[in-house]
Structures are given as C-alpha cells and as structure tokens.
Design goal:
heterodimer; A: about 170 residues; alpha+beta; Alpha-Beta Plaits; 2 domains; 5-stranded antiparallel β-sheet; 4-stranded antiparallel β-sheet; 4 helices; B: about 575 residues; alpha/beta; Rossmann fold; 3 domains; 6-stranded parallel β-sheet; 23 helices; amino-acid biosynthesis (chain A); Acetolactate_synth/TF_NikR_C (chain A); acetolactate synthase activity (chain A); AHAS_ACT (chain A)
C-alpha cells in the first residue's frame, strides 16, 4: 500500500536523522520524503510517501513515529481530501528545431521552461506525482539529461467532504 | 579550596559566577540524585572539577571500565526504580557506554547518560577523542540531546530526567561539548520545559477497561501474563488483588518475574523458550490472554503462528507502539499497568469460577514439573540454584548475565517479591550480571545481593572486583563454571551436530587467587558435599565473596521451544 504520511516535528538538530533512522531500522520503505518549515516558528513538517505491506505495518509506522519525543503529530492523510504537490525539474536534450514541439507538449501540463541552452531545455513542473510521471514519460523519447524531483508535500483540504463507511445498498437488488 | 557542598538557592537573584558544569551539578542536585556512576576524561574535566567543588553532594562510583559503570547504573535503576546518572567522557568513554545504553533501551531502564564532547568549534573535524555520540546513540535511546547553548543546559537536564523516568522508562543521552561545561555564565537560566510531543497516556480508557472486564466474565480459560511493566509501575499488590478477584492463573515473562509471587498456587512458572510446560500450555490453550506490561518478545511467543491460537488478546501497556506490534490485539489498553489494574479492581467483583481450567493447569504443574539430573558427586547447576534459593530464603537480589545460568536462575530461584531480579533480557548482554549486582547492592544496602554469572560473562567485566574491595560491598559472586559458553554449546549440540566451535573455554584464571589479588575471599566448590556448608557460610555473612563453582559441563536447559516452533512443541519436558 502506498500511503502519504505527514508529521509535524520540532525543528531540532538530529530530528530528521532520528526519524529516517527509525524508518530504516524498522524496515519501512520510503519512496520520498520532504521537509520544510511551517507557519509556526521552530516547527517543521515532514511528508513521507511510504510503501507498507498491510494495515498492521502502517499502524506500527504511525505509532513509532508518534513515540519520538520531537514528533508532535502524525497523520495518515491518504484517504482524506488532500492537495498533494510535487515539483520536478527535467533537463531535456533539444535541438533548436524541437523547442516549439516541446513547448506544445508541456503546455497542457502547465509546466514552464526555466532554462534554455544550445542542446537542452529545463522544464519545471508542479503537480501530483501521476502528472509529473506522465510528463516525464512524454519527454523521455527526446533524451533526459537530468531529472530531479522534490518528493510529495501534502495538506488536507480546508473542507473535508462527508465520508461514510456505509456502502449504498438498495432493497431492489 | 573546596566550596560548600550545599546547593545554591535557585531563588537567589544576585548574579552568581558559575560554569556550565556547575549548572549541571546544580540540576543534578535539584533532581535529588544521590549516586553517580562515572568515569572522568578530557572532555568531562570541567564537569569533574564541578563535582570536586560539590564534594559530598553525591556518592560517585568509579568503575574500572565505562561498561561496568553503566551496567552498575542499570542494576541501581532496576532495584531503586529511580532515574540513574552515568557520566562518561567523549570518544572511547562514550563508545564504551554503548552496550549499556542499548541494554537499558531494550529493558526499559531509566538512565540519564552525560557524555563529554569535544569543544563546539572542533566538532566535525575528527578532533582528538571525538565520536559522533548523537549519531551512534540515536537508535538506542529514548531521546538524546547535544547541548548547543549553555542557557539550554538546565532545561535539557530536567527534560532528560522527565523523559527517562516517565511513560515507558528508557535511557536519555545528553552530549555536552567541553566549551559549554567550561564556560562561565553570569545570569540565571530557565529550567522549565514544555514537551508537546511527549504526553504519555497513563490512565486507561474506561471503555476498554469495561471491554476487558466483559471478556473476563465470559472467558472459560483466561490467563494473565506479567511483564516488567508491572514492576516499573509498582503494581504487584494490585495484581494480587486482581488475580484473586477474577480467579485467574498467572504466568510471567523473564523480566516480569517477581511481579507475582513465584510460590503462589496460581503461578504457573515462567513462560517462553525455557518456560514451564504448564505455563506454555496455558498460553497455547487459553481463550483470553491478558498481557500486562510485557512486549511479546520472540523468546516468549515462539513461532507467532502457534501463539495463543484460540485466545482473545488483551494487552495493557504504557507504550502504544508495543500493542499490536507482534500479536494482533483485540482489547488494547494504553495505560500505566498499576492504574489499569486498580481500575479493574474498582469494578464490582464478579463471582467467577474457573475451577475446571485451574484444575487442568494444576495437573500440568504436578505431572510436568521442571526436572533435572541428579548426582551425589558432581554439582548440577540447577541443584546449585535451588540451594542458593534455600540459603537466601528467596529474599536475595539476584542478577545474571545471559545464557544457561540465567535460565536456571529464572527457573529455580523462585522470586516472591518485586524488584529482586536484575537480568539482561532484551539485549542479552554477557558481562552484565556482576556490575549490575554492584549497582543493586548500592541501591539496596541491606539486602543480600547474589551475582549469578557464567565463567564466560564474568570474564568480560570482572575488573569491577576493585569496587567490592574499595567499598566493601558484600556482593556474592557465584560463578556457575562449566568451562564453556553454555548456551552456545547447547545450541551447537542440538542444532549443529555437536560441533563445539569455540564454545569450550578450558583455560581460565584461578578465580580464588584472582579474588585474593583484589583483596577478596575466593572459594571453590567442586562437589555436592561442599555446597550446604560453604553456601550457608558465604551467603549469610556481610563480606564480599567469589565462589568458583564447578558444575557439569554438558548440562542443558530444559524444557525448550526450539527456534521456529510453537509454544506447544516443547522438547525435554520429561526426564528421558
């Protein structure tokens, strides 16, 4: 299962080491991790994308994170209404003749060109991971010279749609 | 000149000239620390200078190796249930403490470990005696700090004591760069703290308590498993009441021994790899398993597939991460063990009767008791342990290393009182038992303390005999000497076709002469006839003693659940 977990942490030296060390020690597989400051002084937010086997492993992950003194709050936001974004920079090999063609490809993705040289162009894209993947695949045939992704960072939406566990039943079937 | 040993009043508004190390010493006095286990060195020179100025405030115990010091601190912490202070210098001082820190982490012992560090200006330059203490200790501590600013020091010390001793206890490391402890500071500093990320749940959820009670009311075959959490919480008396109220049998983990009286008729003996038949079968057959303060270690459960297959599992633990970690749990109760048991006891008593179940277990106890070989000549280690129990009336504090002697002690030294059993359970550390006995003796001055050690483990930390000599501590060291690393040898016999690879150690020091070299009395016991007279004399006086007791080399610990097997698949249950 791919899950998105966020943790708010005290921004103290060693906290990133403690958290990633813990995940490694307990054999959790991290796909990506992003860390940054928040609106509160001294508090940072970590967003992990992890691949866990089952619910029990997931529960352990959240409990082990919570157990850390500098971790203030852990949330699994995968099943919530969320906005998740990742930024990628893609350096693509291009001849001057191909520039227009590439421009046309990236436009529907609302990506932008942030650097151009004789043999290459650098594209910046922001979006959820699937969108980033899709653009990368489209650009791959041109030749990817360099690729860097930030990893996902995510929020829950300001308003959560009502969610019920009940499945809609009908007496007719 | 030495300054007064009196702590300086904290309300004094006049600026006081003091160094970081003085602040540390004051914070330790505020925490009512009585004993410090420490070893000086370059990076802690300012701290040792402050200790010198505060002479008389603490009893400073100087081991002969840092590892001995921290194991002694563990023994002190386990018996006193107080957070215990360890000091080591930077580099090798700190790395020598690592085994003890990891041991305390596994067995939930409250240590506050101060390590010196090179000056802040040279951290990261591979300076003399520099080691990355934060990096090394992060995975084996409940929490760790490096003091970056002198102003933070008193707050960090208070936080460290709070974290080490509340919730699930554990070791906290505070790494103090030398320039911080040496800096002179002239104004008062803050020592209050606020830890929003650390709020242990100590009161049980009433709904879950009711759920457990309901489960108890319908269970036909309940069993209680006691873990060390009961000892940390001081819940033994409450437990006795609970067990009577609900008419349930009790078994224990290795570390939980003593939480419930070993000679009580409801006690089935220890469970697990070398547990009794009655205890392991109770776990296998029960329909309700109530684990109080244990963590379902693999040495207890055996193969998880066969563990308590028909049971609803209730688990009371102060650490939520332990619940559901190894065994799926239907009734999770996050709480201090004593508070949870108290809540159960407060509920209206139920007239429960598990006669059929109790009778079955009693039959198991009678038909399949622990057994061992006997001899009228050579000493069987199990017999020896029974004798130690007899001559100390089961009242002694017993410490051990890891291995055969540890299992025999657990099986045959019946613990009837809490906080008398100090052993390295989770990490399984050789060389733990003897120094731990020193700490235990300092904490329990009037108790008989017996270090039951193997000949292998004793040789790992025996330099601490100096402490017995220096302090006249009446620790009795009983070397269960089979001239082998017994448990390793046993596994080689059972699982490696008797290929005894490097597990037989026939070259040994003369332990009697060694004792004499340290100014102690050494004894040797080689035959059954000597045991009564010698043990009685040695255990019932107030002098330290080292007893080299030669036991049968090829003796095995039984019964046993072989690795990968379930708790119902014990071997060696009956005498062949």
């Amino acid at each position: 299962m791919r899950r998105i977990i966020t943790a708010t942490v005290h921004n103290r030296s060693g906290v990133l080491n403690r958290v990633t060390g813990l995940l490694a020690k307990r054999q959790f597989n991290i796909e990506s991790i992003s860390v940054g400051r928040t609106e509160t002084e001294g508090v940072s937010k970590m967003t992990f994308v992890v691949d866990v086997e089952d619910e029990r492993k997931l529960e352990q992950l959240s409990k082990q994170l919570n157990k850390q003194i500098d971790v203030i709050k852990v949330s699994d936001i995968t099943d919530k209404q969320i906005v998740a974004r990742e930024l990628a920079m893609i350096k693509v090999l291009t001849t001057p003749q191909q520039r227009g063609e590439l421009q046309a490809i990236i436009e529907p993705f609302r990506a932008t060109i942030i650097d151009v040289s004789k043999e290459s162009m650098t594209v910046q894209i922001t979006g959820d991971s699937d969108k980033v993947d899709a653009l990368i695949e489209l650009l791959r045939p041109y030749g990817l010279k360099e690729l860097a992704r930030t990893g996902v960072t995510a929020f829950t939406r300001g308003q959560q749609r009502q969610q019920t566990e009940m499945k809609p039943y009908s007496i007719l079937n | 000149m030495r300054a007064s040993a009196e702590p300086k009043p904290t309300t004094d508004t006049k600026p006081i000239v003091k160094t970081g190390a003085d602040l540390l010493v004051e914070a330790l006095i505020d925490q009512k620390v009585e004993t410090i286990f420490g070893y000086p060195g370059g990076a802690v020179l300012p701290i040792y200078d402050a200790l010198y100025r505060a002479e008389g405030s603490f009893d400073h115990v100087l081991p002969r190796h840092e590892q001995g010091g921290i194991h002694a601190a563990e023994g002190y912490a386990r018996v006193s249930r107080k957070p215990t202070v360890v000091i080591g210098t930077s580099g090798p001082g700190a790395t020598n403490l690592i085994t003890g820190i990891a041991d305390a982490m596994m067995d939930s012992l409250p240590l506050v470990v101060f390590t010196g560090q090179v000056a802040k200006s040279v951290i990261g330059t591979d300076a003399f005696q520099e080691s990355d203490v934060m990096g090394i200790t992060t995975p084996i501590t409940k929490h760790n700090y490096q003091v970056q600013d002198l102003e933070d020091l008193p707050r960090i010390v208070n936080e460290a004591f709070h974290i080490a001793s509340t919730g699930r206890p554990g070791p906290v490391v505070v790494d103090i760069p030398k320039d911080i402890s040496a800096t002179v500071y002239e104004k008062d500093v803050q020592s209050e703290f606020h830890l929003p990320g650390y709020q242990p749940t100590i009161k049980p959820n009433p709904l879950q308590i009711n759920k457990l009670r309901e489960a108890l009311l319908i269970a036909k075959k309940p069993v209680v498993l006691t873990g060390a959490g009961i000892l940390h919480a001081g819940g033994s008396e409450a437990l006795k009441q609970f067990v009577e109220n609900y008419d349930v049998p009790v078994t224990s983990t290795l570390l939980g021994l003593g939480a419930f009286p070993g000679d009580h008729h409801r006690f089935l003996g220890m469970a697990g790899m070398h547990g009794t038949y009655a205890a392991n079968m109770a776990l296998y057959e029960c329909d309700l398993l109530i684990n109080i303060g244990g963590r379902f270690d693999d040495r207890l459960t055996g193969n998880l597939k066969h563990f308590a297959p028909n049971a609803r599992v209730a688990h009371i633990d102060i650490d939520p991460a332990e619940i559901g970690k190894n065994v799926p749990t239907e009734i999770p109760i996050v709480s201090d063990a004593k508070r949870a048991i108290d809540k159960l006891n407060e509920l209206e008593p139920a007239a429960l009767d598990h006669q059929e179940w109790m009778e079955k277990l009693e039959n198991n106890k009678q038909n399949y008791p622990l057994w061992h070989n006997e001899s009228e000549d050579v000493i069987l280690p199990q017999y020896l342990l029974r004798k130690v129990h007899q001559f100390t009336k089961g009242e002694a504090v017993v410490t051990t290393d890891v291995g055969q002697h540890q299992m025999w002690a657990a099986q045959y030294y019946t613990f009837n009182r809490p906080d008398r059993w100090v052993t390295s359970g989770g990490l399984g550390t050789m060389g733990f038992g003897f120094p731990a006995a020193i700490g235990a003796q300092i904490a329990a001055k009037d108790s008989t303390v017996v270090a039951i050690v193997g000949d292998g483990g004793f040789q790992m930390t025996m330099q601490e005999m100096s402490l017995l000599q220096e302090r006249g501590l009446p620790v009795k060291i009983l070397i269960v000497n089979n001239q082998a690393l017994g448990m390793v040898r046993q596994w080689q016999e059972k699982f490696y076709d008797e290929r005894y690879s490097h597990s037989i150690i026939e070259t040994q020091p003369d332990f009697v002469k060694l004792a004499e070299a340290y100014g102690l009395h050494g004894y040797k016991m080689e035959s059954v006839q000597e045991i009564d007279e010698k043990l009685d004399a040695i255990l019932n006086n107030d002098k330290p003693a080292i007893i080299d007791c030669r036991v049968v080399q090829l003796e095995n610990v039984y019964p046993m659940i072989a690795p990968g097997k379930g708790s119902h698949e014990m071997i060696g249950v009956m005498k062949p």
